[in-house]
Amino acid sequence: MDIRQSPLVLGFLLGRFFGVTVRVSLWFFVLIIFLCLRLPIVIGLWASALLFVSILIHEFAHVFGARRTGGDGDEILMWPFGGLAFVSPANNFRSEFWTTACGPLANLLLCIVSLPAVLSADVFWESLRPIMLPPLEFSLSNLPGSINSVFVLLFALNFKLFVFNLLPIHPLDGGQITFSIAKLRWDRNTARIGTLYASMIVCIFLAIIGTFTKSTDAVFIGFALFMFGLQAHMQAVFAQQFGDLGFEYGPGEDDEYGLFREEPEPQLSMMERWKLRRDEKRRDKEAQTQVETKQRVDELLEKINVNGFDSLTDAEKKFLQQASSRYKTQSD
Asked: Are 50 and 90 in contact (CB under 8 A)?
């Protein structure tokens, strides 16, 4: 099942920017309604808009981080609990680490940009509170103060996103970074199960802290992330126990002709299946490009054979030179 067919990610196309398709989940509007009911309507609307922009920048940072380190990314889904960047980092620690880390770093950069407004309003420490928002003033009669409040809100939201995403909890960025580091010491399955255990322990502590501080938000977040971690842990354990079953053929005690077991389907997550399909499409596209390039080269060589090299236009000469260099690099 394609992840885009799930009702949890049902949404609409926003557009394509920098080679990245951006889609918005319909559930994102539930977040807007929640914020407007929980906060004064003006603050709720501004918080929704700034969260959307901040999360979008966060996810684009993941995509650019992957591309910069040898990977790729071509789709973003804006979801109520944060965005989902469909990226494929290169198969090395550097790419995996920076692809993940670029997201929180983008939030940190937005904090730095909006810091002067926070300092001028003298609400720095109030802006660092993990749940509550600092004092804000939105008034048409005080336009400069309202603009300053927008930047204060931008700082407060991005600081919360920065700290929250660095928690070593699955599926947050901190959990992914922890997993990448753990793979340097242990095999993939052991690293995955170990980091998921640690993730669920942190979730329990988060829920306990929320209980003692009477913060229903912290309790809800801790419980919700614990369920995500528990589901991922069950999948990892199942894959570890049954993922190695494969094709076997050999003599058996009760069957002189031997035993035959069909290899089961590999236990892949929706994201891993999406990546496999995306990589297959990329390979098909590269193969098609090579075929088209070869056909064009053959046409130009035939033109040279009939009319000579000078009959080529500057664009045709440039194309032939680039194609020659590309094929030479691939053959080397």
From this structure: no
